[in-house]
Amino acid sequence: MLDEEIAATTISVLTTSGTILESKHSNVSETRSKAKTNDDLILESVDRLSRRTGKQTRNDKDELVVDRIVVFLTNDSNLRVKSHPLNLAAQTIQQFVEAAKL
Questions:
Q1: Over 90: is that where the pLDDT of 33 sits?
Q2: CA 80 to CA 90: how far, in whole Å?
Q3: pLDDT band at residue 31 under the 50/70/90 scheme
Q4: Beta-strand relationship, 13-14 and 20-21
Q5: Model-level pTM greater than 0.85?
Q6: Cys bridge to 90: 21, 54, 66, 80, which one at CB 3.0-4.6 A?
Q7: How far apart, in Å, are the Cα atoms of 42 and each of 11, 64, 65?
């Protein structure tokens, strides 16, 4: 049921090389860097997409203002914690579904 709800939205699937897939159900194999963990590759990909589509500015109080249209969906709590220093909006899939009222 969740797959059907997500399929009806404008959610994109991103590979670790930054390629946006046409299908949300894919079996793409990519070359991995041996020096980086899967978590690193995932976070780099999400960060790259987020920076391409969003912006960071400073307000009058010199506070960082992050404007993003990318939400990193993961049920992995460690990945969500690691996403904070990158200023990525990270949520569990359930949190996103509830917030987006899908």
A1: no
A2: 6
A3: low
A4: antiparallel
A5: no
A6: 80
A7: 17, 24, 23
3-state secondary structure of 20: strand
| Amino acid (one-letter) located at 57 | T
| Angle at alpha carbon of residue 57, lines to 56 and 62, rounded to 5° | 130
Burial (0-12, 13-18, 19+ Cβ within 10 Å), 54: middle
First to last CA, the chain: 11
> What would you measure as the largest C-alpha separation in the chain, in angstroms?
47
Tokens read off for 38: 């899967």
What number of other Cβ atoms are within 10 A of residue 74's Cβ? Answer: 19
Please choose, from the candidates 50, 52, 40, 54, the residue with its C-alpha nearest in 3D space to the C-alpha of residue 72: 50
